[in-house]
Amino acid sequence: NSDRAENIQGNTVSRKGASSPVTNRFVKSMTLNTKCKIIKFMESFHSDLQKLVNALHSLDSSEMTKELYKIRDVAELTISGKFPWKGHTCRQVGDLIIGLQSKIGQRLISSNSKEHKQLSVPLGYNYQKFSVTEIRSK
């Protein structure tokens, strides 16, 4: 057990400085949340990832977001067998993981339309936009 933990921004914090159970849980959760161990899950979607990579390469750059570029890079590495699933990778491509998990459900309802509009077709899940603005205005 280390006396130090890496927080979300990659800074190191001391566990010894944690003075309460809440702080201890927070420091522990920061450590656990930075570990991403989903290689077998991602391997099971090899053909879907290939379709996704092809679809993302065909998009105009105006349709791509920072996360879509990251998703494409991670998917390409995963397909090639390099499995870049360590550190903060899961946090950086959360919409990809959510999209793949959505394949087993009836549909994904999300306000994140920029990414899911592009991910849903090649990955084969039903995406429905949830308008936060519309709900807030009521």
Features of the shown structure:
138 residues; mainly alpha; two-stranded antiparallel sheet; globular
Structure description:
The chain has helices at 21-33, 39-43, 46-58, 66-79, 89-92, 94-102, 113-123, 132-136, and strands spanning 4-6, 12-14, 108-110, 127-129. The chain is mainly alpha-helical. The protein has a two-stranded antiparallel ribbon. It has a two-stranded parallel ribbon with strand order 3-4. Strand 1 and strand 2 form a beta hairpin. Helix 3 packs across helix 4, helix 3 (46-58) packs across helix 7 and helix 6 (94-102) crosses helix 7 (113-123). The longest helix is centred in the middle third of the chain and has 14 residues, at 66-79. It starts with a strand and ends with a helix.
